[in-house]
Amino acid sequence: MPDFTPFRTDTDTAGPTVTASATAVLSPAAPAAVTPEDGARSPVFAYLPKPTMIDFEGHLSFLVFLSGCNFRCGFCHNAALMAERQAGLSWKRVRDACAHLRQTAWITGVVISGGEPTLHAELPELIRFFKSQGLAVKLDSNGSQPEILEQLLPEVDAVAMDIKCRPDRYPDFVGWARPDAIRQSVQLLLRQNRVQVEFRTTVLPEIHTPEEMRAIGTLLAGARNYTLQPFHPRHDLPDPALRTRERTPKGLLLTLAEQLKREFALPVQVRG
Ligand code: SF4
To answer: Could you tell me the CATH number of the domain that includes residue 68?
Structure first.
């Protein structure tokens, strides 16, 4: 998930904190015109006030964050604010921010990130709202809910799925007990070709050994876009042991990328 820089005002910070549900229920199909009431709470917890150029290939984009996540990654940069679901901004704030960027920065896309957006029952409505604004929609997901991802695929233009480690390590590494759900999401994304798909991994040297990457390469065989990105230490990481670790060396990322290209013919790019 992209780094989180909250943009909220006092008028929007009020509201109860609620715990993210493990499984969201999708609402039924809505009419094409999406006009949520201005004062109602949207699922958007925060957004970047400037457009992003790097998160959605081919698009200058509005980047919004939905709070609440069902993983517990020790290296999460957003955990302090994003682990539990928080009250969202008003629809007016979201609509105004979107309109401002459309008029001043000519955005053509939106990236819906988190947290884990698929935990929100209101996600389909949010997607349809952005579509009604003429924006291409990219969804960031940890892949934990393949059933919901499958329902959303016809609605979006791009998906980025994090691959944290090999599936059987998920319970220990990120606290997610359904490795099969990760495999299902990967297969789902590998099977379809309408949506632009990116898989990506944040590389920690002690976890992402050549053997680990071999298991991930097997999982992703046939993928058209895989990105390796470095781990960045920060003082507020959930895992105290990681706070003082070094940033992942670029040389290691390049070495692992070469391995994956050689052994699995994966088109791997290194970012950061
Ligand atoms: S999947 Fe992990 S890194 Fe992403 S928001 Fe959840 S806890 Fe943070």
So the answer is: 3.20.20.70
Residue nearest to atom 5 of ligand 1 (CA): 115
pLDDT of residue 34: 65
Please report whether residue 225 resides in a domain.
no
Distance, CA of 37 to CA of 253 (rounded, Å): 46
Half-sphere exposure of 196 (CA within 13 A, CB side): 14
Q: Taking the CB of residue 29, how many other CB atoms lie within 10 A of it?
A: 9
Q: How many domains does the chain have?
A: 1
Q: Is 116's C-beta closer than 6 angstroms to any atom of ligand 1?
A: yes
Q: Which residue has the least CA distance to atom 8 on ligand 1?
A: 76
* Domain membership flag for residue 223: no
99 located within any domain: yes
> Helix (H, G, I), strand (E, B), or coil: what is residue 122?
coil
209 part of a folded domain: no
Nearest in space to 105 (alpha carbons), one of 47, 61, 58, 44:
61
Q: How many CA atoms lie within 13 A of 99 on its CB side?
A: 6
Per-residue confidence (pLDDT) for residue 1, from 0 to 100: 66
The position carrying tokens 């109860």 is: 16
Q: What pLDDT, in 10s, does the model give residues 215-242?
A: 999 999 999 999 999 999 999 999 999 9
CB 117 within 8 A of CB 148: no
Domain residues for the domain of 143 are 6-200
Residue numbers in the chain where pLDDT is lower than 70: 1-34
Contacts of 99 (CB under 8 A, 6+ apart): 133
CA 212/CA 167 separation, integer angstroms: 10
pTM (predicted TM-score) = 0.88
For 171-185, how does the pLDDT look when each residue is reduced to its tens digit (9 = 90+)? Answer: 999 999 999 999 999
pLDDT of residue 246: 96
| pLDDT of amino acid 188 | 98
Quote the ligand 1 centre to 143 CA distance (angstroms): 11
